[in-house]
Specification:
The complex is a heterodimer of chains A (111) and B (114). In chain A, 0% of the residues lie in helices and 59% in strands. Chain A has 111 residues and is mainly β. In chain A, strand 7 and strand 8 form a beta hairpin. In chain B, the strands form two sheets. In chain B, strands 2, 4, 5, 6, 9, 10 and 11 form a seven-stranded mixed beta sheet that branches. A four-stranded antiparallel beta sheet of chain B has the order 1-3-8-7, with no helix packed on it. In chain B, a hairpin with a 3-residue loop joins strand 4 and strand 5. Chain B starts with a strand and ends with a strand. Classes of the chains: A mainly beta (111), B mainly beta (114).
């Protein structure tokens, strides 16, 4: 299956700072999603973004499919942004429900 | 629209026992997938069901099984529990028909095996 690598593994920020999380994937993908896992364990879908750029409030994401990477930008960080951010991809040979996840970026935002 | 619902939220079982977890997908979603999350292995795919048929399976032993009902609700079963089965089990649903259908996850069931 496809390999998904995320960096950095850990990120510590002060409130108000900006950050960029990166996701590299090893092969062409049909489906690329970013998730935020809250302290209670729920994975919340942030973006479905197999290519191009999307924005949602303080968050935006860009996927360059030809170069096999995606970036998640968080601007003006808030303490509620803390948690683990996962990137997940669907490779072309798999069925829709079978996402390959990276190991995540643990984000801690201090007040 | 109600989200993906998983029950129970927490479970404590003893080695050797079996357990059944339940997942109700978002209304209209026909694909249900199950994932296991542990600190050591991260998020790993267990299996996916679509229209009551298993259409993909991850690399887990046969002790892990699942099924899907005609209303798209799904259950997974783990028999002969081992300590290593302690994990957060997450269920996700999607429309299941196109590659551009995002997955939506439930709150998970946290299983502890003692």
């Amino acid at each position: 299956g496809i390999q998904v690598e995320q960096s950095p593994p850990d990120l510590i920020l002060q409130e108000g700072a900006n950050s960029t999380l990166r996701c590299n994937f090893s092969d062409s993908v049909n489906n690329l999603q970013w998730f935020h896992q809250n302290p209670w364990g729920q994975l919340i879908n942030l973006f479905y973004i197999p290519s191009g750029t999307k924005q949602n409030g303080r968050l935006s994401a860009t996927t360059v499919a030809t170069e096999r990477y995606s970036l998640l930008y968080i601007s003006s960080s808030q303490t509620t942004d803390s948690g683990v951010y996962f990137c997940a991809a669907l490779d072309r040979g798999s069925t829709l429900g079978r996402l390959y996840f990276g190991r995540g970026t643990q984000l801690t935002v201090w007040p | 629209k109600a989200g993906v619902t998983q029950t129970p939220r927490y479970l404590i079982k003893t080695r050797g026992q079996q357990v059944t977890l339940s997942c109700s997908p978002i209304s209209g979603h026909r694909s249900v997938s199950w994932y296991q999350q542990t600190p050591g292995q991260g998020l790993q795919f267990l299996f996916e069901y679509f229209s009551e048929t298993q259409r993909n399976k991850g690399n887990f032993p046969g002790r892990f099984s699942g099924r899907q009902f005609s209303n798209s609700r799904s259950e997974m079963n783990v028999s002969t529990l081992e300590l290593g089965d302690s994990a957060l089990y997450l269920c996700a649903s999607s429309l299941g028909l196109q590659d551009n259908s995002p997955l939506h996850f439930g709150n998970g069931t946290r299983l502890t095996v003692t």
